[in-house]
Amino acid sequence: MAFTGKQLTTQLDADGTLTVQLNDQTWDDPKPGQVLIQVEATPINPSDLGLLFASADTDTAVYSPGKVVAKMPENATRAMKARHGMPMPAGNEAAGIVVAAGEGCEHLMGKRIACVPGTAYGSYAYADPNMGFEVQDGVTAEQAASSFVNPMTALGFVETMKLEGYTGIVHAAAASNLGQMLLKICLEDGIPLVNVVRSDAQVKLLKDLGATHVLNMTDADYMPKLIDAIAETKAMIGFDPIGGGTVASQFLTAMEAAASRGAAFSRYGSNAAKKVCIYGALDLGPTILNRAFGLTWDLSGWLLTPFMMKAGPEVVGRMRARVMKDLTTTFASHYAKKGTLEDMLTKDAVAMYNARRTGEKYLVTPHG
Amino acid sequence: MAFTGKQLTTQLDADGTLTVQLNDQTWDDPKPGQVLIQVEATPINPSDLGLLFASADTDTAVYSPGKVVAKMPENATRAMKARHGMPMPAGNEAAGIVVAAGEGCEHLMGKRIACVPGTAYGSYAYADPNMGFEVQDGVTAEQAASSFVNPMTALGFVETMKLEGYTGIVHAAAASNLGQMLLKICLEDGIPLVNVVRSDAQVKLLKDLGATHVLNMTDADYMPKLIDAIAETKAMIGFDPIGGGTVASQFLTAMEAAASRGAAFSRYGSNAAKKVCIYGALDLGPTILNRAFGLTWDLSGWLLTPFMMKAGPEVVGRMRARVMKDLTTTFASHYAKKGTLEDMLTKDAVAMYNARRTGEKYLVTPHG
C-alpha cells in the first residue's frame, strides 16, 4: 500500500540559489524495524533552520505557493559545498499516527508516536520507533510534537554537568522553550542555575516560573552581577546557544573572577575547572574570547546526537523515560503560530520563525 | 649560615605603575626537603614574561641600573588586582650549585641541579629537589638551565595527545625552542606532526631538522595546504602559543574540512573529534573563532602544572627521565643573548626578550 502527499526539500546550488519547495511524493511500505507516520505536528527548531534556510536572505527571496527561492551569501555557499545540487528533506522531530508498520513494529499500527524522522516536513515520514516513544492516551499531537530536541537537550545539559563533575549551570538565552524546560528540571532536581536573558520581560517570565538567579545581559552591571551569581551557585559550566560575540567569553571571565575571589594572585589564573558549551548559532558571527580567564578553561561545541552516543543507552533511557512521564508539564512547548506545509513557506511565516526570536516558535501541521 | 645577594621583584601598583627591580636579600638555611642553590643560569621564557612585564609598555619605561619603571594599561592593571602592591619574585627554572641543603637533601651538597624555584632571577634560590634532578657530569649550567618548562611542555603535548585519543599534532609557532624539541620528539617516536610557522627561514630551519610538514601561515595557499597536511597525517589535536587572532579557528576549520572530505553533507558538521589547546599568549588580542567547523570541537587552555597533576606521577616520572637522558640532544636550548641580573634590566635587553621573537631567547647568569 502506498501513501501520497507532499514533501518539503531544500536545495542549495553552486551559484548560491537556495530553493525550498514542496514536491509530490509517494511513500511505500516501511522497512523492517521502521514505521510510516502520517505527520500530525512538527516544530521548526533553530536546529532545523540551519538546513532549511541557513544564512540565505529570506527578505529578498521570491515567494510563490509552496516555493521559496532565496540567495545564499558566497562564503556560506562555499562552506556548504557538500550539499550543492541535492534536494534535502528537513524537519527533525514530529508527532504522528502510525499508518504502516514494518516487520516487528506491527503493535504500533494506529498509535500516536513522538519520533525523530529528520524528514518531518512532509505529509508522511518514516521513523525508527526506538528513537521515539508511544504517546500516552490523552496527549495531543501538538503536545507530543517537540518531545525530542528540546527535552533531550535540556536533560543532556544536566547529564553533561554531572558527567564532567560540575554542580551548577549558567545558561544563555534562558527564556527560550529549552531554557524554560532546563529551569523546571533544575528546580525539580535542586541544581543551581544562573539564567541569562536579554530583556526585563524575560527576567519576569523566568522569575514567575520560580527562578532564583535571572540576569539581564543588557544591564550595565551585568558582569559584577554574573560574578556574584556564579560565586554563590558555583555554576562553573555554561551553555550558550548564541555562539557569536562575547557571551562565552563573559561566562568564562565571570567564572574565573568568582573562582579566584580572595585567592592569591597567579599569573596563570586559578586552577578551577570552568567550561562553556556552544550548542547553537543564534548569532552567526565569530566567537570572541578575551581570554581574561587564565589557562584552565574549556570551550566546546555541544550537539545532542554525539552526546547521547557518549552517554550510553542507560543514561539516554533514563532521559527518555522522564520526557514521556512529564511531557505535558516540565517538557510542554508553546507555539506562537501554526500552519500547513504551504503556510510555512509564505513570506510572513518565514519572516516570523527565521527571526529565531525567543518564545516565537512555529508548529507545522501538514494535514491542517 | 646565610648567603647574601640580589633578588629581582616585579610589583604592580593600583595606579598602573610597574616596578621591576633588584633588591638586596639574605638567604637563610633551607627547610627540610629543600635546597638552596647558587643560581648559575636561568632562562627568560614567555611564561616568565607574563609576570615580569605582562603587557606594560617597555618602550616608554624609565631605565636606571637594576630598575625599570613602566606603565601598565588600565584594563590589565584592573585584571591583575590581586597582585597590586606586592613585590613578586620571578623566574621559573634554573640550573645551579647546591650551597646549602635541608634535612634529607644532604647528599646534594655541591652538586649541580636543574630545578623550578619560581624565584630564579636572583643570586640564590630555594628549590624542591623532587621537582628537578641532579645534572650528569659534563653537562654545563647553560645546558641544564632550561630543562623543565620547554622539555616537559613538549613531552606534555605528546602525552596529552595520547591521553585524549589523538594520533597526530598540529603546532603553531613551531620554530620556537619548544617547537624544535617537539619536532625531535615526534621524529624519534614516529608521531605525525604538522609544523606551522611564519617565515620561509623558519620553514627551512625545521626542514633541515627533518620535518616532513612545515607550512608558512603567511602563504596565500596556507589553508588548502593545512587541510591537505591534516588529511594526510590525521593530526586532529593542535597546540597554539599565540592565542590571539584566528590561529586556533583555522586549525579547527582545517581539521573539519579534512575530516569531512568526501563525506555526505551534515548541517552539524562531522562527528570527528578535534581539539586545539591554547598554551600561551604571544598575541594578547582576543581569540577569534569563525566556527566553520561544526559542533564537535574543543578549545582549551593548557598549562603544564595542572597537566602534570592530571597525568600523575608515573607519566611525569617517565617524562622527567627522558629529559635527563637527552638533555644535550633532543632537549638542547639555544640562547641569542646572555647577561647578568643587571644586564637583563637594561633597555636593550628588555626590548630584545620582551619582543618574544621565535628563536631569540635570553639566558640570565646572575654570577656572570
How would you explain this protein's 3D organization?
Two copies of one chain form a homodimer. With 368 residues, chain A is α/β, with parallel strands linked by helices. The first copy, chain A, contains eleven helices and 20 strands. Chain A has helices spanning 46-52, 74-79, 141-144, 149-163, 177-189, 200-208, 222-233, 247-259, 304-311, 313-325, 347-353; strands at residues 3-12, 17-27, 35-44, 57-64, 67-71, 88-89, 94-101, 112-115, 124-127, 133-134, 169-172, 193-197, 213-216, 237-240, 243-245, 275-278, 283-289, 298-301, 337-339, 362-364. Chain A folds into two domains: 3-146 and 333-364, Quinone Oxidoreductase, Chain A, domain 1 (Alpha-Beta Complex), CATH 3.90.180; 150-308, NAD(P)-binding Rossmann-like Domain (Rossmann fold, 3-Layer(aba) Sandwich), CATH 3.40.50. In chain A, α11 links the parallel β19 and β20 (362-364). In chain A, the strands form four sheets. In chain A, strands 3, 7, 8, 9, 10, 19 and 20 form a seven-stranded mixed beta sheet that branches. A six-stranded parallel beta sheet of chain A has the order 13-12-11-14-16-18, sandwiched between helices. β17 (283-289) of chain A pairs antiparallel with β17 of chain B.
Layout of strands and helices, then pairs:
The structure is a homodimer of 368-residue chains.
Chain A lengths: L2 E10 L4 E11 L7 E10 L1 H7 L4 E8 L2 E5 L2 H6 L8 E2 L4 E8 L10 E4 L8 E4 L5 E2 L6 H4 L4 H15 L5 E4 L4 H13 L3 E5 L2 H9 L4 E4 L5 H12 L3 E4 L2 E3 L1 H13 L15 E4 L4 E7 L8 E4 L2 H8 L1 H13 L11 E3 L7 H7 L8 E3 L4
Parallel strand pairs in A: 11-12, 11-14, 12-13, 14-16, 15-17, 16-18, 19-20
Antiparallel strand pairs in A: 1-2, 1-6, 2-5, 3-7, 3-9, 3-20, 4-5, 7-8, 8-10
Helix pairs in contact in A: 4-5, 4-9, 4-10, 7-8
